[in-house]
């Protein structure tokens, strides 16, 4: 298996673990890996009436920095653009927010750090 394929499989497994963890904390999974113009939304979830776009960031170890530190302004713009595309494609008009879940460790020992409303659309 090529290294990129292995990394992608690990990434999907971490995203699935994050979705389960968030579901255990009251959110409901709507969709995952939504590709849109200019970006990808890892998880789309519901928190009551609010649609939540979740970016999952993973690092095996925190020696090289916290996974949350990797959400740059450019990444935020791509996520907002992808979310707008998703809302338009689904013909949705509802309250939305952007959450970030930082995941540290390796399966099955993962630690989750959840920031609700991590940034705003602009």
Automatic annotation (TrEMBL):
NCBIfam families referenced in this protein's UniProt entry, alphabetically: PRK12497.1-3 (NF009150), YraN family protein (TIGR00252)
Organism superkingdom: Bacteria
Residues in the signal sequence: none
InterPro entries xrefs: Restrct_endonuc-II-like, tRNA_endonuc-like_dom_sf, UPF0102_YraN-like
CDD domains xrefs: PoNe_Nuclease
Identification of the protein by name: UPF0102 protein EVC62_18565
Similarity section: Belongs to the UPF0102 family.
């Amino acid at each position: 298996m090529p290294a990129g394929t292995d990394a992608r499989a690990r990434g999907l497994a971490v995203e699935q673990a994050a979705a389960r963890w968030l579901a255990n904390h009251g959110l409901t999974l709507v969709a995952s890996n939504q590709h849109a113009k200019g970006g990808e939304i890892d998880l789309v979830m519901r928190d009551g009436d609010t649609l939540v776009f979740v970016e999952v960031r993973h690092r095996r170890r925190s020696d090289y920095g916290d996974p949350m530190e990797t959400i740059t302004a450019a990444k935020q713009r791509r996520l907002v653009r992808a979310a707008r595309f998703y809302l338009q494609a689904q013909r949705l008009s509802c309250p939305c927010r952007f959450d970030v879940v930082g995941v540290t460790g390796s399966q099955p020992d993962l630690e989750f750090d959840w920031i609700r409303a991590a940034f705003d659309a602009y």
